Amino acid sequence: MEAHTASLTESLSPRTSEFIAREDRFGAHNYRPLDLVIAEAHGSWVTDVDGRRYLDCLSAYSAVNQGHAHPRLLRVMTEQAARVTLTSRAFRNDQLGAFCEALATRCGKEMVLPMNTGAEAVETAIKAARRWGYRTKGIADGQAHIIAFANNFHGRTTTLVGFSSDASYRADFGPFAPGFSVVPFGDIAAVRAAITANTCAVLVEPMQCEAGVLMPPDGFLRELAALCHEQNVLLIADEIQTGLGRTGAWFACDHEQVSPDLYVLGKALAGGFYPVSAVVGSREVLGLFEPGSHGSTFGGNPLACAIAREALAILDDEGLVERAATEGAWLGLQLEALTHPAIRAVRGRGLMWAIELNEPARPWAETLKARGILCKETHGTVLRLSPPLVTSRDDLAFLVQQLQAVFEHRSAGI
Ligand SMILES: *Cc1c(COP(=O)(O)O)cnc(C)c1O
After folding, report:
1. 163 within domain boundaries
2. Mind giving me the DSSP string for 123-157?
3. To test ligand 1's pocket by mutation, which of 117, 164, 240 has the most ligand atoms within 8 angstroms of CB?
4. For residue 154, how far is its CA from the centre of ligand 1 (angstroms)?
5. How far apart are CA 382 and CA 362, in angstroms?
6. Closest residue by Cα to residue 315 from 239, 237, 390
7. CB count, 10 Å around CB of 158?
8. Strand order of the sheet with strand 382-385?
9. pLDDT at residue 342 above 60?
């Protein structure tokens, strides 16, 4: 494995090496990217500084479901940027209302609170739930309690990593906020046991993508929604990665006909052009924010709103949710047919798939990169495959061919 990585490093062009050296010298090393330097991207394909092309099978963690540089987003972004980009919420702008209406309608909810990054939206949902806990449920001041799940990923703020079960997310960042319990993912009895009179919310990813595309047992989300309803606890679905078509439905909760009290959305909400996130829910909950109680300089800015409204419309107009279902089902069949001693399991839904290996996934990602496929290991031994929802059948077939070649090649002991 050492030799394998070294040989790939040696093959880097002087041009690529120069970009990497500069980045590594002046940029903090909080990621371990694959060694290619992207200069351009359109649709499902990216081009590096040496002119090599790769099929993007990560989609910026599902932020570019609509494909890179979607022409409609480019047009709306350019036109809106020429008019007005930022007003702050000190004044109103002519884009916010239409965006909130479109998103609330799509979610079957009453209100939207726009933010920028996913982590901020999760923080906003936590604030909303606590406020509802104090003001509506009657929890004593300072006692509100939230249940989350083992192997969760909700973002990188100090509060959110405080209830992560991943040591590398937490190490030397404490002290952490109290008020959270963590129970095993998919274990309804454990949730029931963890609920107290002070519990205001359960925070769940309907599929744990960062943890390696882990799916709860069938029926779990429905049971969880029923339990929350019965116990007067809010259900918060973090659909930042699973939402907006990725799993072959508008929201992963749809697979079990669950409508959570709060949706947390981000990533594909602006098709990769801009950071836009939002919490979507009822007036009963989001109506508890009065002026001054929460805010963001950039949240709800006209540029963000114009882009996000167009990004939602593209998903609709191009039938991308249906494409994720049909193309994803096809891809899944091909992946399940791969056989190799290193493959432990294949799982997924829509266009979110994982190949779990018996060994580190990074060298496999490097090998795939050399064959024109970009994907990234997650949690050490899992290759996540989540191409843009616009990816053609031919391009998906190219992905399958490369996977077949790579797994055959390696099984031959080379
Ligand atoms: C990416 C992600 C987040 C965090 O979003 P950022 O925009 O990186 O802050 C939160 N939850 C889930 C499920 C995610 O996939």
Report:
1. yes
2. HHHHHHHHHHIIIII-PPTT--EEEEETT----SS
3. 240
4. 5
5. 9
6. 390
7. 12
8. 343-349, 352-357, 382-385, 376-378
9. yes
6 pLDDT band (50/70/90 cuts)? Answer: very low
Ramachandran category for residue 369: left, alpha or beta (phi over 0 → left; psi -120 to 50 → alpha): alpha
Cα(55) to ligand 1 centroid in Å equals 23
Is residue 99 a contact partner of residue 265, using CB atoms and an 8 Å limit?
no
How far is the C-alpha of 161 from the C-alpha of 167, rounded, in Å? 9
Q: How many domains does the chain have?
A: 1
Ligand 1 in contact with 153 (CB < 6 A)?
Answer: yes
Is the Cβ–Cβ distance between 107 and 258 less than 8 Å? no
Neighbour-count burial for 1-19, b at 16+ CB within 10 Å, e otherwise? eeeeeeebeeebeeebeeb
Let me know: does 372 contact 34? Beta carbons within 8 Å: no
Tokens at 340, concatenated: 């190799």
Domain annotation covers residue 29 = no
Q: What is the pLDDT of residue 301?
A: 98
Ligand 1 pocket: which of 152, 153, 296 to mutate (most atoms <8 Å of CB)? 153
Output the DSSP codes for 186-209: T-HHHHHHH--TTEEEEEE-SSBT
What is the predicted pLDDT for the residue at 408? Answer: 82
Domain containing residue 180: 84-317
Is the four-CA dihedral 122, 127, 130, 135 of positive or negative sign? negative
Q: How many CA atoms lie within 13 A of 268 on its CB side?
A: 30
CA of 335 from ligand 1 middle (Å) equals 26
**Nearest Cα to Cα of residue 403 among 360, 374, 380:** 374
Q: Is the CB of 117 under 6 A from ligand 1?
A: yes
CATH number of the domain that residue 199 is part of: 3.40.640.10
pLDDT, tens digit (0-9, with 9 covering 90-100), for 218-232: 999 999 999 999 999
